[in-house]
Amino acid sequence: MPKVKYILLDCDNTLVLSERLAFEACADLTNQLLEKHGIKERYSVDSLLEDFVGQNFRGMLMGLQKKHNFQMTPDEVEDYVSRELGEVVAKLSAKATPCPGVPEQLEKLHKAGYPMSVVSTSAKPRVVASLEKTGIDHYFPNKHVYSAATSLNPPSSKPDPKIYLYACEQLGVKPEECITVEDSKSGATAAMRAGIPLIAYVGVYGIEDGKEKMEQMAKLLTEQCKATAVMYDWKEFPEILKKIEAS
């Protein structure tokens, strides 16, 4: 019997290289919103990523209102959340690719009998689009995809640990009996607050931002989010899992 009872996995930039694609889809929408509210600042994909990586669009709208001191009506928020989801799903369905090594490692875990679940901040249709496009959806039957934006009422967003606690409750496991893999500060903070042992995947920063950013994130996720281990490449996962189970 595997010692770890459930492997919980973030999706965006952990399983699937989706974060930049999603931010490409929502940058125009964000700038339209700012213009509508008379705010001069405009965002590029990179500056949006810098400020809001790891958050869902609803969380981002809350952050934008706070930062730029304007208010949206509840109906306006719902309208923008719905528009953004449609554009992101279309983009991911066309272009999403897996993080290097993910399909091979999921297959090994599946064969070894480890149950797996996706626990994401993103809306469920977006997560499902990413998993389907990359051909890894069969490792996560539909009920094993949990979304802070869709599964919770009211919706939430990491770093709030609610989605992790909800997933554990639904799966019938205690947080400390699981492990999770996260790439962002908000996701790693949610895991830490939920009491789930965390593997920090920083390889994605090497792909998109270079070695310096990768090391910076390794330090941040270890020091601030108490990551149990840092993973630079998915090939390292079996060894890290073995060490966690041995401790």
Automatic annotation (TrEMBL):
Coiled coil segments of this chain: none
Annotated InterPro entries: HAD-like_hydrolase_sf, HAD-like_sf, HAD-SF_hydro_IA, HAD_2, HAD_sf, PGP-like_dom2
Pfam families: HAD_2
Name of the protein in its database record: HAD hydrolase, family IA
